[in-house]
Amino acid sequence: MFEGRKTNHLVKWAEAYFILFILLQPILDMTAYINLPISEPIRVLTMGLGFIYILLLPNTRAKKFALGYIGVLALFMIASFANNFVFKDPFSLSVEMIYIIKTVYVLMMLIIYYFVFQSLSKRTNWRNSVQKYVFISMSIIGVVMVVSSITGTGKRSYDALAKEGHSGWFFAANELSAILAMGFSVMLLYFMRQSNIKTKLLYIPLLLSAIWGILTVGTKVGLGGLLMVLGFGSLIAFVDIWKKKQWSNAIIVPLLLAGTIAIIPFSAIGNNLGYTVTKMQEGNGADGTDPATGEDGSIDGPDRTEQAKELLSGRNDFLRDKINQFEEANISQKTLGMGRGGNYEDVPKLVEMDFIDWFFNYGVLGIIILALPIAFFGITIIKHLIETRFKVFDGETLLIGIAVGLGLGTAFLAGHVLSSPASGIYLVLFLAYLHHATKPTVKNVQSGSNDINSEVG
């Protein structure tokens, strides 16, 4: 009995830590920027703690499936690593190991948060805690972006001088853009759920700082996500006012959307969009026509290739290289993957489209194994919606679903999500959240203690 109580207490402590871990994300990202080597060890130790946490849970069918998958994943990674050690030249031990750990981390955290939310849903208001901590994390990022803009200490987003934008005191602009795109959706959700108008007014500057951060990074991903979230947020607000709820949302959120649209031309992303359009028109006339023929710019030819190249930020060149490498690879590398960057000659480069990188780096078998959990959660969420006849589909699930969609869309088109612990943690967090929020058999506590940590005090 004593051992059972001790185990139960350890499980509760672990669950409280994983919720608080959300708050640590921007801090860990800033330590990476200043070259303080603690973010990766903490994340690896957290993944290890999560594995121990799963082992301590009661034996269930879900636990057996999870441990079975983790075992298969581990065996595959060992086989892929060993195969590339034999056939890949050059082969960098550190590069390959770090890439494998980062990939495994994202999948492990998805499994861990599945069990954390499953356990918490039985006894506490975990949704409110997750929303609150994501709101705080996005607020920290937003404030840092504002301060770094004022002080001129932000790290440039692009090497090209014609492009503007910076990533503040964070290491990578692409990762930060994905984080803000996903996180702002949940940030807005938490804001809209506040019933006290004074609280809302206090939170508005934090929302504005996050919006400023998204526009200042200067990437298309962040802008697209911001406009989508504010657009659907406005729609939700109007529906709620029709139901005589939260009339203030129907005023504030559309104003945020209108203000964002108005400021775009004067922001870093506005400059970069103009730069992209200019590059796409190079070789054509100023009006989009070919100067030699006078024909409309919609004609096929080399200009179309250049336009696509600009939109994809050069990813098509990397993709072409990986296709050639894959065609020349032996059967074992086609099955188990060519490792990070493929069979490169000088520097390992990714296509920067995560699912495509998974295919080349982990092979035909690898893409199946790696995508399996994501496909499982996606199919199960759709199943939940159908089983409940979409009764669980409300403003909350819509905004969480947008966050997941933005994360997966970014992973497919721009990368830096599924193999990046900094941004990948948010995708899997929201994917596990959406799974449990739509589950028809789960009665999530909506009253009582809002503080998960009170359980382990």
UniProtKB/TrEMBL annotation:
The keyword Membrane is annotated on this UniProt entry: yes
In terms of Pfam families, this protein maps to:
O-antigen_lig (PF13425)
Transmembrane residue ranges: 16-36, 42-59, 66-87, 99-121, 133-151, 171-192, 249-270, 359-386, 398-418
| Spans annotated as Disordered | 282-304
One GO MF term = ligase activity
Q: What UniProt keywords apply to this chain's record, in alphabetical order?
A: Ligase, Membrane, Transmembrane, Transmembrane helix
The answer to whether the entry has keyword Membrane is: yes
Q: What is this protein called?
A: O-antigen ligase family protein
What organism is listed for this UniProt entry? Pontibacillus salicampi
